[in-house]
Amino acid sequence: MAMAAVRLPSLSLLRYPSKSLLSCPLSLAPRLRHLRPRASAHISGGGASRCISARSLAKEEVSSSATPSTDRKPSSSYEGSVTPRSVDFNAWYLDVIASAELADYGPVRGTMVIRPYGYAIWEAIQEYLNVKFKETGHSNMYFPQFIPYSFIEKEASHVEGFSPELALVTIGGGKELEEKLVVRPTSETIVNHMFTQWIQSYRDLPLMVNQWANVTRWEMRTKPFVRTLEFLWQEGHTAHATAEEAETEALQMIDVYKKFAYEQAAIPVIAGRKSRAETFAGAARTYTIEAMMGDRKALQAGTSHNLGQNFSRAFGTQFTDENGQRQHVWQTSWAVSTRFVGGIIMTHGDDAGLMLPPRIAPIQVDLLLGFVIVIQSVYEVILINVNIINYQVVIVPIWKTANDKSGVIDAVSSLKDLLLKAGIKVKVDDSEQRTPGWKFNFWEMKGVPLRIEIGPRDVANKSVVVSRRDIPGKPGKDFGISMEPSVLVAHLKSRLDDIQASLLHRAISFRDSNIVDVNSYEELKAVIAQGKWARGPWSASDSEEQKVKEETGATIRCFPFEQPLGKMTCFMTGNPADEVAIFAKSY
Amino acid sequence: MAMAAVRLPSLSLLRYPSKSLLSCPLSLAPRLRHLRPRASAHISGGGASRCISARSLAKEEVSSSATPSTDRKPSSSYEGSVTPRSVDFNAWYLDVIASAELADYGPVRGTMVIRPYGYAIWEAIQEYLNVKFKETGHSNMYFPQFIPYSFIEKEASHVEGFSPELALVTIGGGKELEEKLVVRPTSETIVNHMFTQWIQSYRDLPLMVNQWANVTRWEMRTKPFVRTLEFLWQEGHTAHATAEEAETEALQMIDVYKKFAYEQAAIPVIAGRKSRAETFAGAARTYTIEAMMGDRKALQAGTSHNLGQNFSRAFGTQFTDENGQRQHVWQTSWAVSTRFVGGIIMTHGDDAGLMLPPRIAPIQVDLLLGFVIVIQSVYEVILINVNIINYQVVIVPIWKTANDKSGVIDAVSSLKDLLLKAGIKVKVDDSEQRTPGWKFNFWEMKGVPLRIEIGPRDVANKSVVVSRRDIPGKPGKDFGISMEPSVLVAHLKSRLDDIQASLLHRAISFRDSNIVDVNSYEELKAVIAQGKWARGPWSASDSEEQKVKEETGATIRCFPFEQPLGKMTCFMTGNPADEVAIFAKSY
């Protein structure tokens, strides 16, 4: 199922030739490309054709929409092709985002509009994590986004870390403000200000809250999802009576993130502790999950901070302990953001586009259906009305004659009902403007895990063809799968499980084949120069860590929780080392 | 179940007397009160006692926490009492917010921290509406909150309406910005900027999206939930090919809001059209739902705007129609915000505190449980682990001797499992620091619809006492309800339905007894002076509407959709009138 090598001019081009060819003012691909870092500037050529190829076909219909589909041949393919991943990973990434309609640039430089198909991925992340946060005893709430500038200054390393990235409101209601307001880059300061009012005694602890919110960091080099001026995240904030409890909480939450990454997103992250240099501004310890992207760069996909008493001392967040003594609370904070969507794209995507793990299709719809069934008893009606966006299965009906059509459409319609009732998120693409071949490519670009193909012969045989998104061509197809409900549903669920497992397995293999153990700085340099991750014993200083960064571009991603046994020697200094560190270039 | 008339000094006072008595720096009730409008300034006295009464007891525990509860008599009552609603409605409102721990002030004047118990109400609103939006074909997405200032200026009445309320970012990343950025007060401008890029032909229409977001309006007079500098809302934005479709959409969405208000929040809103003067800045027509609060002031609880082509002309949002002609799209936008939480408090609350309609307890938990049952088959474990906040039923066990205790606790524990399995959100308050009487008052303050009381005699009789929150004292109690699972569950569900219906019925009666038909301006003045709503035929000018506002303080809340039949005469001018308008003072 390789993408067409030649990009056909899109049909929208035929309709608005001058606009498309001359200026392409509204085309996304070039807009995305102009923000690519200079390293990829050599990828040029085909500007005008990419200008339309990457975007317009998903929107623009063929000009002959009145023509019945029975006259159409399945030869015209989906033109929303992307730069091959192996040619230019960054260009590929931006093309996939444009072609799969995940996001677009906002009018203010560095901002991003998250389009429905991309937002549905974020909703899937939210729905899973929201349950886990509640199960682990956290309550959602909401803190204001405007923070007095003086708050940021209270914790010394915090202001140092964040002040270069702040957006400041200086005018409100037409007047210059007496004190500038920071648009939150993170909420530890305002959280502590409020915690001082809610925490009196040890009985008020632990205090465990979370908020889903937008945050702003004035980033100079932005990239959709991965680093944007404004992004969406959740930030958990907790206060505890003891250092041990805070440490347990920080570790628990990085474990929640790790499980999500493995089990839902099929991303085999490495969990560990950040080096001092990479620790969050204001934290005592930062735990992280680090994911290897398709270009082998590391993506910090989630962090959990043990804040110690840094903020509680700065803000005076105290409680009276069981002996009547005033103590500062011990705190944590932890966050996952829309960056994770970028991680999913860059872990699983291929030259055909996005590839979504089946479990990332939103959970919510299942839940809602469950609710509707129980409470309203109007199962079918609501099932069909709910506006599902991320599908696990797309059904593409195929017919040539009007005679064939009705049989195929009837079969597709009952299949759809069957799958919805089985809790499978299904889309029927029965539009008459597109050929089956075009639809195959389109839904592959969108990353839908399974495709069911049904033609007249399949209807006659009471069977269907099931194609996996993760295995191109014939090897990924199951022919002659019976339409008998229990057989088909069992087959699809089993295939969805296979795909989920296969994506994780593939990512683990890729990761493991790209992490190399090193025992000298020279070895590290060679490994990093190959674009791989280096793992080696480390007990050197912060300044030596800085030297590695300057000389190789790699940073310590983490000291992984999983450590080799036995005595080790720091590859940099030759001194004894307690642990290995992982070095890599990163986003 | 009247609140204790005498406020006992709180026990926190005994522990930190100097701090509490002298400065009360962290107490919420006085902080809330200092923002009350001057009209209520005559309510003073008892400052120091309210300073502690309204808040601290929910947090502070009794000093003798080591004392076993068997030694405790059920006489000490919950001290988190509030100003009687009839004495000072505004003070009552702020006291309920503080005592039920719904919200708190943020450090920046006019901002609000939404605490977990208040945020759970917002989540219940979100979860219901989110389903309805998807059922009606809308997709969630996210637009950036920073809008170039020039965008706001493009639509003439929009800039006039919003420019006095804008918060402006002028510094980013340490540098003065070339163009000021508006922190979104609403998103029509940026939405249109993006729509121009996504809409080419009629086949791209309708385009129907929604976002859940924070918005900022620099309000001078704020009030928690009702009007805050930053608030949370959803804003739907749609584009259509015809004026008729846009009108249908705007009407559909105000109907979604109306149904939510009636069926979930038990608020009998009046839906109708805004007058020209009260129409949204930039809209052709604004539809509204208007709710009567307990003080008979009107609360605009949701709006839906038919924007016509105002924004599409300002931004050039065009499509090519079926005849190949370029046309401007027809648009709508519609919103409900955290203000609705204030509407729930002010519609149903009483002197004992908050009163929550049973259906406002979050839907999500049911859904999640349903999911967990289906997918993980570990029903009980997860049920108990999920952190439910808004309860439909609270169980208060009562015992005097250690002997009695174990039997009562066992009975309570199996009751809890039973109710959770039946999908009823239940809390067991078995803490030993509080007396049953204190707990009764505390959970009434929190507005939990039903309370189950179980003592040793009830255990022996295999029965419980069930108390309704909405009917004080003995008339609200059902004695001797069998613990037999099917009987008890049926009884509770039936009672929850009764309460839901009763709250709505009571609010309808209150509303209808406070709307008076008027046939002259003199009559209107008299009705408004009584604090009621006036309804009368109206076809007068905008300036006469302005005169009514200046002379009476009342505005046209809406021209209700439900209109009397027959010919009418404008009560102001004596000219023929096509419709009646409703006038009222409002929030």
TrEMBL record, chains A, B:
CDD domains assigned: ProRS_anticodon_zinc (cd00862), ProRS_core_arch_euk (cd00778)
Lineage top rank: taxon: Eukaryota
Gene3D superfamilies reported for this sequence: Anticodon-binding domain, Bira Bifunctional Protein, Domain 2, C-terminal domain of ProRS
GO biological process: prolyl-tRNA aminoacylation
Transmembrane residue ranges: none
Record flagged with keyword Lyase: no
Reaction it catalyzes: tRNA(Pro) + L-proline + ATP = L-prolyl-tRNA(Pro) + AMP + diphosphate
Domain Aminoacyl-transfer RNA synthetases class-II family profile stretches: 109-357
Protein name: proline--tRNA ligase
Species the sequence originates in: Zingiber officinale (Ginger)
